[in-house]
Amino acid sequence: MGAGKSSTARELGGIDADDLVESAAGKPIAELFRGEGEAAFRTLEEQTIVLALGGGAVTSPAVRDALGDALTIWLDVDVDTCWERVKGSDRPLAQDEAAFRRLYDERRALYADVADVVARDADDVVLAVAGVQVERGALRQLGELVPGEGPVALVSDPQVAGIHGMDAQLALGSRLAETHELPPGEEAKTLTALDRLWQELRLDRSGTIVALGGGCTTDAAGFAAASYLRGIAWTPVPTSLVAQVDAAIGGKTAIDLPQGKNLVGAFHWPGRTVVDPGLLETLPEPQRLEGMAEVVKAGLLANEPFWELPDDELVRRSVAFKAAICLRDPHERGERAVLNLGHTFAHALEAAAGYEGVTHGRAVALGLLAALRLSGRDTGVVEEVLRPRPVRVDRERAWQAMRRDKKVRGGEIRLVLLGPDGPQTGVVLPETDVRRELDRLIA
Ligand SMILES: NC(=O)c1ccc[n+]([C@@H]2O[C@H](COP(=O)([O-])OP(=O)(O)OC[C@H]3O[C@@H](n4cnc5c(N)ncnc54)[C@H](O)[C@@H]3O)[C@@H](O)[C@H]2O)c1
Ligand SMILES: [Zn+2]
Fold first, then answer.
1. pTM, 2 dp
2. Hey, which end of the chain has fewer CB within 10 Å, N or C?
3. What's the pLDDT tens digit per position in 159-182?
4. 143: which residues sit within 8 A by CB, 6+ positions away?
């Protein structure tokens, strides 16, 4: 009582059970029906109903029984906080403080017994539902964290393999069946690299691909998992800040084509995602700044300064923020569009630079400046945390790229901006205003 179950459930209430089924299945419901039949859908459906149980519910053996295989999350909040929230209310079991504290103590052992996961707050609940483990030192527990019992193929990039590969191999122990290396950087996201990986893989359908590396590794290895044998399980272990807070969250996997980035891919939600913020200690500063651009973006959208938090919390909050949106909109048909804050401008700058010399993080930082200015907001945060310098690109080329952007519908540029009540998508502004802000980003 008073732990915040109801408000958390309300927050999760935005999560539609069908969407949860789609996330768990990694495919639209219609496709699940066609491919695996209604029974498969019902099984997943049974697993994805979110229930807020009253504090006394699990004292009943029948309820405990009914919970069966359900993921049971204990929202563990200290007794003082709970009492603060319920005292003076008309709840019958919250009239006497001593009795309330006694009840709290009595029930803890039972909760610990019933729970699969202990959550401190709503973010922990989201992470548990999304299957994301955020914990310093998690890499060392990888063997237990990868779901199932089948063999594992470890896929990493050469740099990360040299730094963290041995720890991953030791943690996987006897489950490790094969190791593979992708080429470094975007080279991993090519058909050539994928072709080699597909041909080298020996796993059968009981196997799991573990992707250890930055966003390029998780994107490419994730797509290998989505396509090899028509799709097998995978567990990303993101090692860069970009991958931890963005690329490895949300189930999108992809490789590039000569015509553009991320043009071939699949939605393939991992059974578990293992995020170890301790791995960021070996990340070079410029790569960290790349990730901070997405952390600042998430914080602006959430209206909370995630960027001020120490690493472990900064990662946990940013991951939970993105995961909640992706659970509610697994196939990017609606709400997920808010994650494009600053990105319409960023993509235009990257395209104008021919994807050379302007990193995505720097382009996003500049794009956030433009989005904030057009939203009538202060830009101090972006300037202080990301220190973006204007880019040297052709103005006309950038403008044309912006007009071609995929979010252009009916000839209008649709932007994500921050309104008084939160993010707004599909905002259309006079072209002269948009072009003026784009121009300010160019040296
Ligand atoms: N799927 C999605 O939703 C999504 C979202 C955002 C970005 N992405 C993709 O992610 C990619 C960019 O990811 P990235 O910025 O991580 O690039 P990356 O994978 O190339 O990693 C950047 C560099 O950091 C190194 N590195 C990574 N972790 C390290 C560590 N712990 N210690 C030392 N070095 C480390 C890598 O070896 C590499 O040299 C892009 O291809 C982008 O399209 C995908
Ligand atoms: Zn981005």
1. 0.89
2. C
3. 999 999 999 999 999 999 999 999
4. 171, 172, 173, 175
